[in-house]
Amino acid sequence: MSAYTHDTVPVPGAATRLGLVETDDTVRSGVSWPAIFAGATAAAALSLIMLLLGTGMGLGMTSPWEGEGAEAKTIGIAGIFWVTFTQVAASGLGGYLAGRLRTKWSGVHTDEARFRDTAHGFLAWGVATLITSALLASVVGSTLSAGARVGAGVASSVASGVATGAVGAAAASRPGEETSSGPMGYWVDSLLRKDPSAQPASTSTDTGAATGASGRGAPAGDSASTAELGRIFANALRTGTLPPEDSRYAAQVVAQRTGLSQQDAEKRVNDSYARAKASVDEARNKAKAAADATRKATSYGSLWIFISLVIGALVAAYCATLGGRNRDL
Questions:
Q1: Average pLDDT, the chain
Q2: Does residue 11 fall inside a structural domain?
């Protein structure tokens, strides 16, 4: 009799297997990944669309012509508000969908359900952020950063074109090559401008020597001296000072080619070098100012992106609780 009595004792889990009393809700996971991925997909798609729209509106506000288009400060403020609005809208949508589409929990306390909904919204925001970042870094990033690259290219070309490119081109020139192109060619030409009121010095000896050495007459000597003056100026601009011996030699060449006195030629050489150095220094300062402005803009942009992401995470978590509450009604 006791054996039969023992057989009638309820076995834990038996009712569950028979489907009479308990359900399998207690063994289900508290995370509904399909709902999370659905919300993340919607948030990433909306973020991408709104970022592209904001980029188009921002480019429409700019203009390369002076006096046209919005100011850089206005565009920056508008960009901050648009990025923040994009985060709020996309994160809110993704969080709400993650909470609304998740599996309904049975027998879960209200506080526990609210916590799970908050976690669903945060996870949906995290997945959407990763997806959007991957898209921006791969394909869309090149489109969104085109304007920044153009601005940086203009700033660098100002410095390199005057301070580096022109100097290097003049320094690399060889006798007989053209040196009249570029900024350095302008400074060399300004040295060799003839004074209409002065009479050129006799150059018969130099001309004969040039003819005997090259077989092509004075033009070869003139071209060689022009290239040499370019290299003298290039070295002086590179080192930041014009050595006295180079200044005297350049003055002798200028006096011979233009008919100026040695004193006037030296003054012209020093004045031309001072103007060239001032021009190069100005270009370098402009490039440094542009680089500093870019650095500050990047720093402020990174800070505001961080703030907008934090706001997006909070909005996604809150909207997920709203979606879950509506789901359980």
A1: 75
A2: no
Report d(CA 50, CA 274) in Å as an integer.
Answer: 52
The sign of the CA dihedral 118, 123, 129, 135 is negative
Closest CA to 131 of 43, 216, 253: 43
Q: Does residue 232 sit in the same domain as residue 265? A: yes
Average pLDDT over residues 187-215: 54
What six digits make up the tokens of 164?
């580096």
Residue pointed to by tokens 């081109």:
169
Cα 152 to the center of its chain, rounded Å: 7
Q: Mutual orientation of helices 33-61 and 72-100 as an angle, nearest 10°?
A: 160
Following DSSP, what letter does each residue of 200-221 receive, concatenated?
A: PPP-HHHHHHHHHHHSS-HHHH
For residue 233, what are the domain limits? 157-286
C-alpha distance from residue 167 to each of 183, 184, 243, 277 (Å) = 8, 6, 17, 11
Q: Which of 10-14, 86-90, 252-256 has maximum average pLDDT?
A: 86-90
Residue 34 is predicted with a pLDDT of: 92
User: What pLDDT is stored for residue 142 in this prediction?
Assistant: 61
Q: How confident is the model at residue 152 (pLDDT cuts 50, 70, 90)?
A: low
pTM score, whole prediction: 0.60
Q: How far apart are CA 258 and CA 65, in angstroms?
A: 42
Q: Are residues 150 and 54 in the same domain?
A: yes
Mutual orientation of helices 262-328 and 218-239 as an angle, nearest 10°? Answer: 50
pLDDT, position 42:
95
For residues 243, 248, 254, 255, the Cα torsion angle rounded to the nearest 10 degrees is 170
Query: Rounded distance, CA 121 to CA 40, Å?
Result: 9
